[in-house]
Amino acid sequence: MDDEQGGEAAGSDDLTDDWAAAMTEEESSSDDDGMDDWAAAMAEQDETDSADLTEDDIQTAPLDYLEDESPDFDSDNPNLEVIMDIPVTISMEVGSTEIAIRNLLQLNQGSVIELDRLAGEPLDVKVNGTLIAHGEVVMVNEKFGIRLTDVVSPSERIKRLR
């Protein structure tokens, strides 16, 4: 029995040695092959980079010249017909003031905020946040309305809306 175990141990050592030799041989040959491939690629790159290009090597593509085919735009008399049906927001501003966030957070029902306008002073009429007129509050069929008292000229309104 001892002979069998001794024989198996010796066979196992031989097998281990064979595997180790094969692995070492494979690693060294693959490293050499990899290095050879890298060296060849680098040499090819150097040859390509060092080659001087001549005008014969460069090809040009014919291009069509672009023409300005857009219609003439007259900035003094713009065609406003295209924007006439766009909805805008109109608002009336009674007044404004600045307060600290601390005071804003303390506001509750019944609080009074003092504005920068006097009572009876005209309101600001704004379109999308741009001042276009001044006016006074009126009642129309039990709803609030505004009677315009001072209106910015149409050309000035267009300039302000841009």
TrEMBL record:
The keyword Membrane appears for this protein: yes
Main location: membrane
Pfam families registered for this protein in UniProt: FliMN_C (PF01052)
Region (Disordered): 1-60
Cellular-component GO terms for this entry: bacterial-type flagellum basal body; plasma membrane
Family: Belongs to the FliN/MopA/SpaO family.
Listed NCBIfam families: fliN
PANTHER family xrefs: FLAGELLAR MOTOR SWITCH PROTEIN FLIN (PTHR43484:SF1), PTHR43484
Span of domain Flagellar motor switch protein FliN-like C-terminal: 83-152
Record field: compositional bias (Acidic residues): 24-36, 44-58
GO terms for biological process, alphabetical: bacterial-type flagellum-dependent cell motility; chemotaxis
Keywords recorded for this protein, A-Z: Bacterial flagellum, Cell membrane, Cell projection, Chemotaxis, Cilium, Flagellar rotation, Flagellum, Membrane
Key word Cell membrane present: yes
GO MF, one example: cytoskeletal motor activity
Lineage: Bacteria, Pseudomonadati, Pseudomonadota, Gammaproteobacteria, Oceanospirillales
Localization per Swiss-Prot or TrEMBL: Cell membrane; Bacterial flagellum basal body
Native source species: Terasakiispira papahanaumokuakeensis
Protein name stated in the entry: Flagellar motor switch protein FliN
Membrane topology: Peripheral membrane protein
Function: FliN is one of three proteins (FliG, FliN, FliM) that form the rotor-mounted switch complex (C ring), located at the base of the basal body. This complex interacts with the CheY and CheZ chemotaxis proteins, in addition to contacting components of the motor that determine the direction of flagellar rotation.
